[in-house]
């Protein structure tokens, strides 16, 4: 049996990978194995091969993954800016700047 533990950790607020770590923590709360087991049973493809396929497809897709996630990230960026503008303070704008800076840094390592 393959073990895929959820990511549980903490990090300082100024961690340049905080957004990515948060995403990993959020997405790893669900267990992907039941879905992959059903797919394996339905297709006859061994589960280990499906796991490899999913990992390689995501990791190797580069720009394809960026295009697919673009609307999600763009919406997140819009929400960050809207919240800062609604607050109207310099502190909120600086916080938004830092959040956008982290998103851009994360996006730049995905290429």
Number of strands: 0
Strand/helix succession: HHHHH
What is the gyration radius calculated from CA atoms?
18 Å
Mean pLDDT: 85
Q: What general form does the structure show?
A: elongated
Beta-strand percent range: under 5%
Model description:
- This protein has 111 residues and is mainly α.
- The protein contains five helices and no strands.
- It has helices spanning 18-27, 33-43, 47-61, 63-87, 90-109.
- Helix 4 (63-87) packs antiparallel against helix 5.
- The radius of gyration is 18 Å and the shape is elongated.
- The chain starts with 17 loop residues before the first helix and ends with a helix.
- The mean pLDDT is 85.
Secondary structure topology:
Elements: H1 18-27, H2 33-43, H3 47-61, H4 63-87, H5 90-109
Task: Provide a short characterization of the protein structure.
This protein is mainly alpha-helical and 111 residues long. The protein is built from five helices and no strands.
What attributes characterize this protein structure?
about 110 residues, mainly alpha, 5 helices
């Amino acid at each position: 049996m393959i073990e895929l533990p959820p990511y549980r950790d903490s990090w300082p607020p100024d961690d340049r990978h905080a957004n990515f770590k948060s995403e990993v923590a959020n997405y790893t709360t669900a267990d992907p194995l039941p879905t992959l087991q059903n797919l394996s049973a339905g297709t006859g493809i061994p589960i280990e091969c499906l796991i490899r396929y999913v990992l390689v497809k995501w990791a190797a897709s580069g720009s394809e993954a960026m295009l697919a996630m673009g609307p999600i990230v763009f919406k997140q960026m819009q929400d960050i800016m809207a919240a800062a503008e609604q607050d109207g303070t310099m502190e909120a704008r600086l916080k938004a700047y830092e959040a956008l800076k982290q998103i851009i840094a994360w996006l730049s390592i995905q290429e």
